[in-house]
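Can't paste images in this forum, so I'm doing it all in text. The chain is below; anyone willing to post the predicted structure tokens underneath?
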Amino acid sequence: MSRETLNRVVRRALVLAATGAVIAVAVVTVQVAAAWRADAAPLDTAPVAMSAINTDMQAEVARTDDLSSQIDDVAGQLSTLQGAVVTANDAVASDADSAATLEAQLAEAKTKLDKLQSQLKGAQARLVALNKAAARQAALNATAKRSTPAVAAAGGDNGN
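Text version of the structure:
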């Protein structure tokens, strides 16, 4: 081997050794930092026991079942309410139809009432006229009756 090749091999060996040393120093530094961190932040509370986790999980499962049951109850109530709303809407539609029919009947009855009131006014006017005529006739009859004894005494018999 030549001197140049030997220098290259030595340089490469030194670079590899230095790289290995840096990696070793990094690993040691991380381990020392982890130990310092563990010493600086001791664990004050004990970890939760597995039985406590199981108890909490069972409580949550029971709560979930209860909530599911409540949701099913509410869904049933909503279904009932929807049926009631549909029934109420049908009743409102039926009532609206009935109201329209009654409104038409009322308009027809009002027309008949107006006609009857008009006829009644005419009849009342005729009655007033008849009453006036009857009063005039009664006055004429009364006058004729008063004058009839005088005519009978003066003229005698009326064709008998």
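Residues 1-39 form one domain. The mean pLDDT is 88.
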